[in-house]
Amino acid sequence: MKKVLLVLFLAVLLVADVHSQNSPKKKKRVRGEKKKEPVTPAPTEAASQPEDVFQIMGRDDEADTARAELEARLRVLEQQEAQEMNELDEFTDNYGPDPCADKKCGPGRECNPGEKGRAKCVCMKACPEEEDFRRRVCSNYNETWISDCELYRTRCLCDEGSSECINPMNKHLHIDYYGECREMPQCSEQEMSDFPRRMRDWLFNVMRELADRRELSPHYLQMEREAENSPTEGHRSSVAAVWKWCDLDGHPHDRVVSRHELFPIRAPLMALEHCIAPFLDGCDVDNDHRITLKEWGTCLEIPADELQDKCDDVRNGVENNGNEEGDEEV
């Protein structure tokens, strides 16, 4: 359509130019220039004779010729545009819509259309160049990476067994905290003994803040209200602890929280709360890189009889709500 409008615009200019060439031009007057007396040219024999009908017809023929040429060009452009549309329709019929349009890949990965339109997530070929030092991250091996993309891409390459994997141990690579690696101060015995209480209070305050900002799903909001109206501080803490544990247990929902799944609370807090790392490490009592709900409660000093696994109730409720409304996510 843009091409058609451009051709029509050129047609108007060309026809106007044909007529303007046969029209008398008025000379512009420059400011400050002396006005000259008009000189009356001597009449010539040609000027004194009126134009005959053949001269007038000649000018009309020039305009008709120009118009015909433009119409021919317009038809060619229309044919080219129709051909391009046919090729696009043929491509869509053969390959369908973009298979990566709705495909979501994890960090360090990108979508590859694959053969026959079967999209799959593969390790990124390269990460965007990063010059901002604030984007640097520190890994669990105490190594500074230029960006989180580079760290996740490296982990992906090792996880997939790529020849580009330098160290097989990098398949367990994850972000420890944001910023360059630095020496963290040691937590005192008093700080560690008081940390479970502070952590319980922090979890409840975060849940309440998300509820006030309306960023909790309906069933998580129901848990927040239960905590708000709890008759005892212990019950309030247990509800907040179960909420966060269910929230951290991502895909797959296997009733345990892995070291990778602890990232949302570990990485952002490390720069502000250096005791978070040894605290979370201590939660994994058997050192199997997974934290059960019982271990989570023990770590937060919550009695086992006050912990109720409500993750299935929450997820089923959210899924049912999502089927009805289509706009809720866990």
TrEMBL record:
Highest taxon, organism lineage: Eukaryota
Composition bias type Basic residues, residue spans: 24-33
Keyword Transferase attached: no
Gene3D superfamilies: 3.30.60.30, EF-hand
Segments for region (Disordered): 21-51, 311-330
Residues annotated as signal peptide: 1-20
Compartment(s) where it occurs, according to its Swiss-Prot or TrEMBL record: Secreted
Protein name: SPARC
Organism whose genome encodes this protein: Folsomia candida
